[in-house]
Amino acid sequence: MTNTQTRRSFLTQVGCCLAASPLVTPVALAAAPGDKRLVVIILRGAMDGLDVVRPLGDRDFAALRPNVNMGDALPLNDFFGLHPGLAGLHPLWAKGELGFVHATSTPYRDKRSHFDGQDLLEAGIGPGGAIRDGWLNRALSLMPGTQLRTGFAVGGEDALLMHGDAPVSTWAPDAVLTLSTQSKRLLGRMYHDAPLFAAAMDEAVDLAGTLQAGGGDIETYGEMREAMGNAMQATAKGSTAEKLAQFTAERLLEDTRIASFSLGGWDTHNGQARALRKPLAEFERAILTLRDGLGPAAWGQTAVLAMTEFGRTARENGSQGTDHGTAGAMVLAGGAVRGGMVHGDWPGLANAQLYKERDLMPTSDLRAHAGTALAGLFGLAKSDLEAHIFPGLDMSAAPGILR
Amino acid sequence: MRFNPQIAATRFGTGLGPTAVFAGDAGGVLASLDDDMAGRFPIGHMVDHADYLSKYRDLAKARRKGEDGAREAQKALRIAMKDRSQDWFRATLARQVAAPVGFHERLSLFWTDHFTVEGKQAVYRPLVATFTEDAIQPHITGRFADMLKAVVTHPIMLHYLDQFASVGEGSVVGQQAGKGLNENLAREVLELHTLGVGGSYTQTDVREFAKLLAGFRYDGKGGAVYRARRASPGAEVILGKAYGDDTPRVEDVYQALEDIAAHPDTARHLAWKLAVHFVADRPDPELVAHIAAAYLRSGGDLMACYEALLEHPAAWAPEAQKVRRPIEFITASLRALGITPKAIMAAETRIVMQSVVVPMRMMGQPWERPPGPDGWPEDAGHWITPQGLAARLQWAMTVPAAITNPLPDPRNFARTALGDLIDSDTDFAARAAATRWEGVGLVLASPRFQMR
Q1: A116 vs B120: CB contact, 8 Å cut-off?
Q2: How far is B302 from chain A (nearest CA, A)?
Q3: Given B196, B372, B386, which is nearest A200 (Cβ)?
Q4: By the number of CB atoms within 10 A of the CB, which of A88, A175, A316, B44 ranks highest?
């Protein structure tokens, strides 16, 4: 029986009763832990790291990709170039606020399923481990002085990354709470003796009220119905990157220190040059919105880590796309990261250097970089990172990705 | 704390409403398990839809070869299958709304959640409902060991927990193809489905059980087939008992499942799960012990467990201690509003999406997309979050008026939805609301309705 299992069974027995709800009983009254901020963006669908951060100096690269890599790359250093779809982020590179880790991956190998790959990425465990909670939630549970708002899962999905025993906030920028003044009063009366409901409603009114659109009072059924309809449409489609990032920046200026959201659209099996345009534009918009929304002071204390479940095949396929691969790139942004660099060892792209003669060979465990960020930003101990947050991880060789 | 027909209908059934039939005692609740809902609102079986999977795969192959029309044919097939699965979702809702008591439907949700599966690829997703129909429904009132055997050999479970990918160490196929063991299903059966996380098993038991389980393949016809050439030569020792010999046999797998099901840790784990789901996030230990004893005494007979649950005074605590999950909240609301099963079966897909599917996602329970093999969380705090509650409030205020014409008088509706369980604050809110839609919404949003 491992330690994790013992701890879990203890928590299972204790359960969660109403009185112990984090909404009702604040976990701690201390201020949020420090000024450092971490944003984790999950890029769902497997981003092609070899297209986004192109190893132009590798002599085998051009032959592997005759058709898929659109346009001329923007220069990063004498070896790598940036996808032109991220031109808006290029100025950040020169300022040291944009960097990458290349040839990195989770410990997931061979099966190349989005579903399993994302589960492992978010659970932060090795293959064969039990999928129960997310590594960001475990990190929060080991940080002193956290409150409900310290960790914020933005976007409404119950993402595994933030799921677990530590209390976190969740809210979608498109969620609405529109009630008439009288209904609010009557609800307050009904919830008076139901603290869990009362606290959730207070928090919801607060969050909905902080948004320009959506929140507030309404008096007619038509208005109510319209608000609900808009929220449903947004839920069905997913919020735009700009809304997610704007909402995230607002939270980070308040009590939130760890936030996460997801961006999709990276599964480019066909016509990659065209298919990558939209997800790249959305991603660029998300980073720039975070920077602008946070302002220079908070941006200077922020590290953004954008990661994906796995990379894509080194060779393009028969439909001008790429298929599921292994290693890929991780994007670093913010004033707290050591930018202007592509971190990691380059494995080469000659056939014998590829993983299974097909994919970019991983030269680092993606979790080590996330661990480095958690240690540097929030002072989490290496022993906790290697035993509890990322069980079985060896962080000893991880490069310093923070300033 | 004694039997109350209205608590029976809410805590153990699918709620009050114009069509609810009240059981007179605990025996009546048990007797209600024998109903004809599955016959009235049919859901498909995996074997009847195996041709969809094989056709889909053939078309995928044709598409890769660039054959004309393969893409369109594949799309048409996918849409047709999706339509069928949407009908099955309507049937799932209709059963909960139409059932006289609804204990059977609640147990169906409970056991489906206990044995959580998910379609890991788009092609499997429309088939997930067949898992409940094939492996859960036939055994709800039977022996747990039989349900366990049906679950562990169902293609949806075998695919979800990677058992199809598992090849036995030292097996013919393993040696030829260099493939190996996958422990996923073995571990989850012991940790989640039977003994429980605190149960008396070790990693060695997980490994040995995984070796024993290796050998199942999809049979191409909607079932699983056991192939000795993929299985490890025995014997495997699990929880101190040896199974099999040099010749792998599926009977050894079944025997191990029987023995694991009969283990006292399994009795305790299942008793605890039933008590947590139906009664309280932190159930009375005596209630758990009482159900576990019935399980062991009866040789794992589930009816004996339900009887033990319903006869214990702790099950009838007057205060509601559980928050209704989104699926329970929505079907209880439909039931209270008097939406007929016929209307549900005839509802346009657009209406089902707007009134049920998308709102469930907003409330945190996207249908058939559970967070992991451990299923949906039980604790109240997980569901009554700012976002979760906002979605429930928004639903309560808007959806009833969109699907009910005319809306009931809120004062009467409060009585229909809550019966004698109504409290003075909810009664006041129903009377004080400025409009019908707000009055109905407030009743549905009340803690009395949200909890059971």
Answers
A1: yes
A2: 23
A3: B386
A4: A175
Residue A243: what residue type?
K
In order, the DSSP letters of A6-47 are: HHHHHHHHH---GGG-TTTS-S--SPPS-S-EEEEEEETT--
DSSP assignment of B359-414, as one string?
HHHHTT--TT--SSTT-S---HHHHSSHHHHHHHHHHHHHHHHHH-SSPPPHHHHH
* CA A390 – CA A383 distance, rounded (Å): 10
Closest CA to B192 of A9, A108, A121: A9
A187 interfacial to chain B (CB closer than 8 Å): yes
Q: What is the pTM of this model?
A: 0.88
Degrees (nearest 5) of the Cα angle B346, B350, B354?
110
Quote the CA–CA distance of B164 and B372 in Å, as a whole number.
19
CA–CA distance, A397 with B282 (Å, rounded to integer): 45
Report DSSP state, residue A187.
H
> Would you write out chain B's pLDDT as a tens digit for each of its 452 residues?
789 999 999 999 999 998 888 989 999 999 999 989 999 999 999 999 999 999 999 999 998 888 999 999 999 999 999 999 999 999 999 999 999 999 999 999 999 999 999 998 888 999 999 999 999 999 999 999 999 999 999 999 999 998 998 999 889 888 888 788 888 899 999 999 999 988 999 989 999 999 999 999 999 999 999 999 999 898 999 999 999 998 999 999 999 999 999 999 999 999 999 999 999 999 999 999 999 999 999 999 999 999 999 999 999 999 999 999 999 999 999 999 999 999 999 999 999 999 999 999 999 999 999 988 999 999 998 899 999 999 999 999 999 999 998 999 999 999 999 999 999 999 999 999 999 999 999 999 999 999 99
Name which of A192, A173, A344 is nearest A261 in CA terms: A173
d(CA A178, CA A218): 6
Supply the ipTM of this predicted assembly.
0.94
Main-chain dihedrals φ then ψ at residue B385, nearest 5 degrees: -100, 165
**In terms of CA atoms, which chain A residue is nearest residue B122?**
A115
Give the span between the Cα atoms of A1 and B30, in whole angstroms.
39
> End-to-end distance of chain B based on CA atoms, in angstroms?
15
CA atoms of B433 and A245, how far apart (whole Å): 38
* Token reading at B400: 């009833």
